[in-house]
From TrEMBL:
Residue span of region Disordered: 55-107
Superkingdom of the organism of origin: Eukaryota
Record-given protein name: Exostosin GT47 domain-containing protein
UniProt keywords, alphabetically: Glycosyltransferase, Golgi apparatus, Signal-anchor, Transferase, Transmembrane
InterPro entries: Exostosin (IPR004263), Exostosin_GT47 (IPR040911)
Length: 461
């Protein structure tokens, strides 16, 4: 569900819209070119060369859904089945789903919030195909490498902390059937550096990350032919630390061309490109057995706890600090955090220093309906999951109306369906030591599959 204060919308368009497919019969160098430049070069090579633009996923008929979900005021496309409000004080009326480049339709339609997927059948069919065919080449590094700690998976104990997603992914991928040792059979190439590890390495540190990545891209582009074939369009990296926002400033070809799988996924973040890049959830590692509590026993309307490190959070705390129904905390809780999540109907994710935090993953794990207060957040797995049907997105300018919005949902009995849908998507927001079908690892792989190389190259030999 999306609740907005106004009717503004913003245009978000993929770098290009071609859907033709083809095979390279010749090699070209496109180092540092943007996507439009790549297409232009390819078109000049016709009929020998053509493009295969399937990276934009289901919105272009390929992947089981629609363009990625984005939070914020406006950007909705008519035809969806969600609740919106031109003004949160007004009577809610039905509009459309969030969509790149769309606008709101106020035409009333029957409400249907039962389905958590945009197109479940398409997703399931393509998921099977992905599982059988997707191949990833990981640039090799050995234990004797002086920077092995940066490139190799850390298998000493389980990943922990806010940035565990980065470590979990690298471990899971390295042990998966998706990996190929033959780079000429690869759909995608993984750049295995860890920004979180660089940050803690005294030889690099925060100040040296940009130069390290620049040198690394220079190295692989001269040692291997694969980067230069596409300018990095079929390469990707994974990062969950906020330092990653600026890590590519000395290697702009990475943020321009490569697929960035990141937690910091804001449409207004410099270097992040919708459709090309993908959002990964920030998930704190938790046991596989999830605690449950019936909605009738969730006595608190909403819950939030967090540091005061943004205007959004300051506004939230200032408005609701002393409210009896919305539990807002700006210091350590006296009771267990898990108990607060289990005892609340809604759990608030408010933008802090970044649009992303682990609170969405926490809410889903404990069966609490997420409330997203973070404008322009490209929500994780938005190509597949219909966030409108298991979360409530509220414009940051409507914080003052938050209680009214949530009470209306509870009073209209829509809360029960939303909460049930949260339970359905829990499996997608869980890491495992050994990946399980449809868990976070496989969902990230599916997002990559949707974005598999926009430029297909086959050896002329």
């Amino acid at each position: 569900m999306i609740y907005d204060h106004d009717d503004d919308h913003f245009d978000l368009k993929p770098p290009f819209d071609d859907q033709s497919s083809g095979i390279f019969n010749s090699s070209i160098s496109v180092v540092g070119l943007q996507y439009d430049d790549v297409v232009r070069v390819l078109q000049e090579q016709q009929p020998m060369v053509s493009t295969a633009v399937d990276m934009f996923g289901p919105s272009h008929g390929d992947g089981g859904g629609r363009s990625p979900e984005v939070t914020g005021s406006g950007s909705e496309k008519g035809g969806g089945e969600i609740l919106t409000a031109n003004n949160s004080r007004d009577v809610m009326h039905e509009g459309g789903q969030l969509s790149a480049g769309g606008s709101r339709s106020s035409k009333a339609k029957p409400l249907n919030i039962k389905e958590v997927y945009h197109e479940k059948d398409i997703f399931m069919d393509n998921y099977k195909q992905m599982n059988k065919s997707l191949k990833i080449y990981i640039y090799p590094h050995v234990k004797s490498d002086p920077f092995a700690n940066i490139f190799l998976p850390n298998t000493r104990g389980s990943p922990g902390g806010n940035y565990a997603s980065e470590s979990y992914f690298k471990i899971a991928l390295s042990m998966s059937h998706f990996v190929t040792q033959d780079p000429y059979k690869a759909d995608l190439f993984f750049l295995p550096f860890s920004i979180a590890s660089m940050r803690h390495d005294k030889r690099i540190g925060v100040g040296g990350i940009k130069s390290f990545i620049k040198d690394y891209i220079f190295s692989i582009s001269h040692e291997y032919p694969f980067w230069n074939r596409t300018g990095g369009a079929d390469h990707f990296y994974v990062a969950c630390h906020s330092v990653g926002r600026t890590a590519m400033e000395k290697a702009p070809e990475v943020s321009i061309n490569a697929i960035q799988v990141v937690c910091s996924s804001s449409y207004f973040l410099q270097g992040y490109t919708a459709h090309k890049d993908a959002s990964i959830p920030q998930i704190w590692p938790r046991p596989g057995i999830r605690p449950t509590r019936h909605p009738s026993k969730r006595q608190m309307l909403a819950f939030y706890a967090g540091a005061m490190n943004s205007r959004v959070r300051e506004s939230l705390v200032h408005t609701w600090l002393n409210d009896s129904d919305i539990g807002v905390h700006q210091s350590r809780l006296k009771t267990p955090y898990s108990e607060a999540l289990l005892g609340s109907k809604f759990c608030i994710h408010a933008k802090g220093f970044e649009v992303n935090t682990a609170r969405i993953g926490d809410a889903i794990y404990y069966g609490c309906v997420p409330v997203v207060l973070a404008d322009h957040y490209d929500l994780p797995f938005g190509d597949v999951l219909n966030w409108n049907n298991f979360a409530v997105v509220v414009s940051t300018q409507d914080i003052v109306f938050l209680k009214s919005i949530l009470n209306k949902i509870v009073e209209s009995n829509e809360y029960m369906q939303l909460q049930n849908n949260v339970l359905q998507v829990q499996k997608h927001f869980q890491w495992h030591q050994i990946p399980v079908d449809f868990d976070t690892f496989y969902m990230v792989m599916y997002e990559l599959w949707l974005r598999r190389s926009s430029v297909r190259i086959h050896s002329s030999s």
